[in-house]
Every structure is written in C-alpha cells, then in structure tokens.
Amino acid sequence: SALRVVELVKMLRVVTKRPVAKLFSRHIKIDTQKKMLEEGAVDVAVGTPNRVLRLLRDGDLKVNRLKLVAIDCWQDEKMRVVVDMDDTRSDLFAIWRDVLLPASKSPDYNFKLRLM
Questions:
Q1: Using the 8-state DSSP alphabet, how is residue 84 labeled?
Q2: Are 64 and 70 spatial neighbours (Cβ–Cβ below 8 Å)?
Q3: Which of 14, 37, 42, 70, CA to CA, is 20 to 30 A from 55?
Q4: What is the reported pTM?
Q5: pLDDT tens digits for 3-19?
C-alpha cells in the first residue's frame, strides 16, 4: 500500500543518503512520476506493484540500470503480504513474468532479486 511505501522511503533515505522516488498512485499523478523519471536517473525507487508495472510497461521505468529488486514481504494488520492480496499479487507476478524474467536472461542485465 501507499502507506507502506512512504514508510520504506523514509527508512531508505536515512540509509542510502540519496533521494528516493515514490512510485504509487495515492496523491501522485502518473504523469508527474513519468516526468521525474524522464528528467534524470533514479538511484532508489519504492512503489506499489500496480504503479511500478504501469511505468515499466509504458517504458518510463527502465530495467537496464537495475542492481537490486527488493520485494517487501512486510505483513499488514490482517497478516497479509504482497503475494497474498488480490489487488497486488497479479501485478507483482506480471512484473516478474513480463519484465524481470526476460531481462534476467540477457547478459546485459545484472540485478539481484531479494525478498525482504
């Protein structure tokens, strides 16, 4: 959820000492995010599966600079994780099936996948 993304962004800013892009739909229009991604390289980004998938499919979020893809397996108050929820599971699997898996087969891409 967007609230979890905001929590992660705050934590990552402290750890990385770098700007962290927020990629979710609540209160942030996709056109604003597309412009931000177009204007410069993003070192760290955190987003909901649906928004990340849209940005990847539209070609605004690129996989050629990826070093790490982390899937947040934090449990919500109902004890669910991202793969348990109907509204996130299909987008998460589409990211893997349509984008990350094909990219992982190319020698041009060298990223790690972590469940956290």
A1: T
A2: no
A3: 14
A4: 0.84
A5: 887 888 888 888 888 77
